[in-house]
Structure to design on (159 residues):
């Protein structure tokens, strides 16, 4: 079964937050992508949490200089991930931010999102939780995707 994991970093955790970085990786093919999103290309994306910036280390000015506009970000995701199911370890948060991104453009995603329960049993989910807590997460999207894949493979491999 094809396993593609996704992770997003955001301007904060509140309901007014928005995505600032997206990364995904296909574990089977090794194909991956990661990019920043320019918040100035979306209407009303002003909220910024300094604590979130401290966690991910992404400066808002860097986003404005190096980030993709929201339309290009959605097109890029749809082109690469059409018809795929993406696995997230923080499904509710990542889905919320992806919805915010696509709603801001008026586009619809051509892919689906699912939580870890799509690929792990209840017992494996518990093991995943222990392993994930033991990891030092850098809170950059592509690094986190790599960490998620490592944990999934560890708990799915028979002892």
């Amino acid at each position: 079964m094809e396993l593609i994991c996704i992770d997003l970093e955001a301007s904060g955790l509140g309901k007014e937050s928005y995505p600032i970085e997206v990364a995904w990786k296909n574990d089977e093919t090794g194909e991956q992508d990661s990019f920043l999103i320019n918040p100035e290309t979306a209407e009303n994306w002003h909220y910024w949490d300094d604590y979130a910036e401290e966690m991910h280390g992404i400066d808002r000015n860097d986003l404005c200089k190096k980030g993709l506009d929201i339309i290009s970000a959605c097109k890029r995701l749809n082109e690469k991930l059409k018809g795929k199911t993406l696995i997230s370890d923080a499904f509710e948060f990542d889905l919320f931010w992806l919805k915010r991104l696509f709603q801001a453009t008026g586009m619809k995603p051509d892919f689906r999102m699912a939580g870890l329960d799509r690929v792990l049993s209840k017992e494996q989910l518990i093991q995943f939780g222990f392993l994930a807590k033991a990891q030092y997460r850098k809170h950059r999207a592509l690094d986190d995707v790599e960490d998620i894949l490592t944990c999934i493979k560890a708990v799915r491999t028979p002892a």
About this structure: The CA atoms of residues 82 and 145 lie 19 Å apart. Helices lie at 50-56, 60-66, 70-81, 91-105, 122-134, 141-156.
